[in-house]
Write a structure and sequence with these properties.
Blueprint lengths: L1 H8 L4 E13 L5 E10 L4 E6 L8 H4 L9 H18 L3 E6 L15 H10 L7
Parallel strand pairs: 3-4
Antiparallel strand pairs: 1-2, 2-3
Amino acid sequence: MVGLCDEVLGEQSLRQHRFAFLTGDRGPTGRATRLPVDAFYPSLQLVVEFHEIQHSQSVAHFDKRQTVSGVSRGEQRRRYDELRRAVLPMHGIDLVILDYSEFEHGSAGRLKRTDQDRRVIEDRLRDYIKP
């Protein structure tokens, strides 16, 4: 999906970019890890996050481990998603979240990658597309 966003916006994103001001739980050493974002477009001050199925429902493969903060991986993901929604705009960065449910997918949430995907992305990112 990030590659398709790059095509639609006409520029290469910084993938898995980490901001100094966006940090997660502190680990055993007391250090907080910088949280990655799926795609950051510096010239647009835009972050695009793609929420796969595990962002909205429990998926055993992704949720099997407890985190250093003692909460489930699903709960941590929910907290970090909320943190991104709250903190990025405070720093002048827009956030667009693309949810897997907006795209054609199978029963397990696996994307089918259709032409309609591009139209969905074009619609969601229309305010950022350069003429």
